[in-house]
Amino acid sequence: MTQLTSIHHINFVVKDLQASVCAYETTLGLTGFEYSELPERGVSTARLRFGGVWLVLVSPHNEDSVPGRHLKKYGEGFFLLSFGVDDLEEALSEFVERGTIPGSGIIRQGLFEWRVADLDTSAALGAMFHLTENATD
Amino acid sequence: MTQLTSIHHINFVVKDLQASVCAYETTLGLTGFEYSELPERGVSTARLRFGGVWLVLVSPHNEDSVPGRHLKKYGEGFFLLSFGVDDLEEALSEFVERGTIPGSGIIRQGLFEWRVADLDTSAALGAMFHLTENATD
Predict the structure, then answer these.
(1) Do A51 and B52 touch (CB under 8 A)?
(2) What is the Cα–Cα distance from B61 to A11, expressed in whole angstroms?
(3) Measured CA angle at A85 (ends A81, A89), to 5 deg
(4) Which of B10, B83, B126 sits opposite A77 (nearest CB)?
(5) CA distance B111 to chain A (A)
(6) Could you tell me if A53 and A132 are in contact, meaning their C-beta atoms sit under 8 angstroms apart?
(7) CA distance A85 to A92
(8) What pLDDT, on a 0 to 100 scale, did the predictor assign at position A105?
(9) Can you point out the beta strands (E) in B24-74?
């Protein structure tokens, strides 16, 4: 039983957003990235919908943020996977009831008007996951 | 223009396969993983189809393999993303024509009877990608 409904987006942390968008276009033929800023997270981003999943490139402005620290520690590459849920509050309640990884429990504004909540899964699963409400946007 | 048709699977490298499957079940409520061995790659694996994408846990038997080296260098977490293609030979030809990242160009047996080909994208894109033929399997 899970409240997860989809793979909503996959984030890749990159150093230079424009250069990375060009590289994705040139090397993989993936075109049509849309740009967006998320100053409260300290990142510039670009997204592309492909195969029912958003591929999101995230470029931190400095090292003083979660994506920035990840970039510094691991270099460019996969950052996190976000599962879609119908109702964020309900999904978080389920995680709390299960007694596992509710993360901070704080719902925050994500990229592109997405409402998101982090899950503290790095220790248990070795990868970062979070939740996004409204899996179709 | 791209030959890519889907996000076929996402691989996560893990230390202990059984423990990781349990952790995914417990923490995320994702159940129904199928196990499979791929001795020529030196890994044990488990996969789950979710949201139209295969989530695959890959546990290297030792450090003397691509997944093993990745685990040693970065620890557990995201390993690679594989795009689905209709025809692997045709897709590889396109990459060669584009003059970019044909990888080794070698088509090999992947997990679960999948035919795959690696793309040498780590330098250009900071993440590892490859191709899998027959996106619905």
Answers:
(1) yes
(2) 28
(3) 115
(4) B126
(5) 21
(6) no
(7) 10
(8) 63
(9) 34-38, 43-50, 53-60
pLDDT given at position B105: 63
Order of strands, sheet of B115-119, starting from the edge strand that comes earlier in the sequence: B34-38, B43-50, B53-60, B4-13, B77-85, B129-133, B115-119, B107-109
Distance between CA atoms of residues B130 and A119, nearest Å: 28
Are B50 and A10 an interchain contact pair (Cβ–Cβ within 8 Å)?
A: no
Please report the DSSP string for A79-121 in residue order.
EEEEEEES-HHHHHHHHHHHTS--TT--EEE-GGG-EEEEE--
Measure CA of the first residue to CA of the last residue in chain A; give whole Å: 24
Give me the half-sphere count of Cα atoms (radius 13 Å) on the Cβ side of residue B74: 27
> B61: alpha, beta or left, given left = phi > 0 and alpha = psi -120 to 50?
alpha
Average pLDDT, 10 consecutive residues per value, chain A (137 residues): 88 96 91 93 95 96 92 94 93 80 74 86 84 71
Q: Are B127 and B81 in contact (CB under 8 A)?
A: yes
- Which positions ≥6 away from B89 have C-beta within 8 Å? B107
Please give the residue of chain B at the shortest CA–CA distance from A91.
B28
pLDDT at res. A56: 97
The series of mean pLDDT values per 10 residues for chain B, 137 residues long, is 88 96 91 93 95 96 92 93 93 80 74 86 84 71
> 């510039």: which residue's tokens?
A44
**Which pTM was predicted?**
0.92
